[in-house]
Write a structure and sequence with these properties.
Substrate binds at residues 133-140. Helix 17 (494-507) links the parallel strand 20 and strand 21 (517-520). Among the domains are: 173-179 and 229-396, no CATH class; 183-228 and 430-461, no CATH class. It has 27 helices and 24 strands. The mean pLDDT is 96. With 741 residues, it is of the alpha/beta class. It binds NADPH dihydro-nicotinamide-adenine-dinucleotide phosphate (NDP), 2-oxoglutaric acid (AKG) and magnesium ion (MG). Magnesium ion (MG) is lined by residues 351, 549, 553, 583. The site of NADPH dihydro-nicotinamide-adenine-dinucleotide phosphate has 21 residues, from helix 20.
Length: 741
Amino acid sequence: MSDAPKILYTLTDEAPLLATQSLLPIVQAFAGAAGIAVEPRDISLAARILAQFPDALSDAQRVGDDLAELGRLATTPAANIIKLPNISASLPQLKAAIAELQRQGYPLPDYPEEPRSEQDSAVKARYDKVKGSAVNPVLREGNSDRRAPLSVKNYARKHPHRMGAWRADSRTHVAHMDAGDFYGSEQSVLVAQAGSVAIELLGQDGRRHMLRTGLAVQAGELLDASVMSVRALAAFLDAQIADARRQEVLFSLHLKATMMKVSDPIIFGTAVRAFYAPVLDKHAAALEAAGFDPDNGIGDLYARLPALPADTAAQIRADIAALYAQRPALAMVDSDKGITNLHVPSDVIVDASMPAMIRDSGRMWNAAGQQQDTKAVIPDRCYAGIYQVVIEDCKAHGAFDPAIMGSVPNVGLMAQQAEEYGSHDKTFRIPAAGRVRVLDQAGNALMEHAVEAGDIWRMCQTKDAPIRDWVKLAVTRARLSRTPAVFWLDPARAHDAQVIAKVERYLGEHDTKGLDIRILPPQEAMRMTLARARRALDTISVTGNVLRDYLTDLFPIMELGTSAKMLSIVPLMAGGGLFETGAGGSAPKHVQQFLAENYLRWDSLGEFLALAASLEHLADSTGHARAKVLADTLDAANAKFLDTDKSPSRKLGGIDNRGSHFYLALYWAQALAAQTADAALQARFAPLAQALADNEQAIVGELIAVQGQAVDIGGYYRPDRERMAAAMRPSATFNAALGAL
Ligand SMILES: NC(=O)C1=CN([C@@H]2O[C@H](COP(=O)(O)OP(=O)(O)OC[C@H]3O[C@@H](n4cnc5c(N)ncnc54)[C@H](OP(=O)(O)O)[C@@H]3O)[C@@H](O)[C@H]2O)C=CC1
Ligand SMILES: O=C(O)CCC(=O)C(=O)O
Ligand SMILES: [Mg+2]
């Protein structure tokens, strides 16, 4: 390559964006000294919105489409991208971000909830591109390798986090449907020849309505289709609401409305309707006029009350209060503010919410701010059962002990929008009863389902090359780490049965002598993995895209207290590297605390680990010797960082995110000053190491002195860059030392 080696570092949202204001200048200074450019690319929700509307903005306001650029780069060998977690916006978040940008003077159109013209529809389509999980699927041109590095695992064993005790008589359980769900209706076909397919709804009246045409398919790829009956779902939810009340447990719903941005908001809305039915029915006309949409949560109702006559609004509030007396208690997101599990579809996200419940003795919070046993409703059966296995295990054997438990790394099938997480553009709320058929080019029906109006029908694609790459990655990880690997695949599912056949075939391409590789249905795989973990044994989980997501929060949260400490690598299929930081989200709670107290408890360890892996990749792929020196010394710094426990203290008066960055810089500079592989770098970093060590007290003092007061950074979705940077770099001594490098 002729260009200087380059790492692209993403600017995202919320806590990780704040952290980046402090960390990126350090990274740029260190990398710059070694001749490596670290360039920011803005993929925040706000930037992604602005990039959709160049025509509405002035020259000065226009921003480039950095996400599209990164997406193209990810399919080339040159990619070296550090990707921090970003907001996957629900509709309420998207609308809030648009409103904030409008207030800041960007003349964006409003979000057209009910498009009335072609122009409205075009605007809505642009906004919908930004909605939900719209970043990760673009960048993930490779499969996923997530694990706790040994140093992190050892740290967790030495300093185990608190795990809530479990009682054998806990009433907590998972509730799922027994029929009428995606699991029960899945069909799958193997595409024989490249070409295209179409999806049609053949109405009961004989009319054909094309849902999708010209959808390209590759030879060897798997297509599967399934449907959730909304009638069955509603009946199930009614029964669960009644049962939660009978059992005196909290009612909670756990979905992935961000990634499953078409299906899961509908499921969420069905639950909101079921829970609040008496009030919603009684006030149907008023709520309709106010534009309330249950898919956006009961929070949307409260947001619209001011638009109604005061007495109607008061009556609705009173009716909801009265309804609560007849309903089971709802799990709360924020009991102080009265935010329930059914307020906003993106507040409770299953990958993080179920592990948090399991870590908290199987309890969630009730309206009185107390913990209580819970009914966790996860309607579809494809993956719900794994959580019930964990719950049963904890009831039988007590909470897991992070001081001894084994580790569960994951190799996840993810590339090229694999499986359910790529299905949103092939997911439909069915407008009328009939049959949905997937047709090949000759018009033959490959798959066919009977549907009723309102049902959720979806199709998923899983390409062959990603499956083959995933099997290879699993074998490689099993070999390198000498750890048994289990493919979590359910032969009773049409899709999984096809994947099993491919896995068996592609395993044959590798030398698996001496390796323990098995294929087990998810619940059995979970039982085996948990039993081993209790005996301090590690087990690699090799899973599809959804279980990748679920397990890489579940196990890190049990083992390490948070998924922020995961190493999360995406070896891109074209040869580049995508280095995700941790496996968790953008932690909105952390921003609230920062704004109120100028204390940011975000732990950047995930960023530190990703950066080391990125530098390592740069060295390997370009032969850049100084990248190797930076990588090795950063490894050493990370080890010392863990050893000396310099993560944010989580208490006001101790170091926060910024203080932890200072210590990383100190240890990294010291490691560079101590190494002898590159004398010039040694000489360059020795004075910095000295200056930082000499001024440790002063710098930490300056960083802590700002805590305890509210900060204003001029925005939530698009904070003022200068104010944010100033707030995140409050130590003049540290800034000067870094500037002198
Ligand atoms: N890869 C990505 O881009 C991802 C993006 N998301 C998005 O993030 C947003 C929030 O998602 P949510 O499910 O609430 O998950 P979060 O991970 O943001 O929040 C759950 C909890 O995880 C802990 N946590 C996560 N990261 C860190 C960290 N670096 N340091 C310390 N603690 C951390 C915190 O727990 P505690 O309370 O114990 O401090 C936090 O409150 C959503 O918009 C979601 O779509 C979610 C997952 C991945
Ligand atoms: O893209 C998203 O919305 C979330 C991604 C996620 O949770 C994960 O990959 O673990
Ligand atoms: Mg996740």
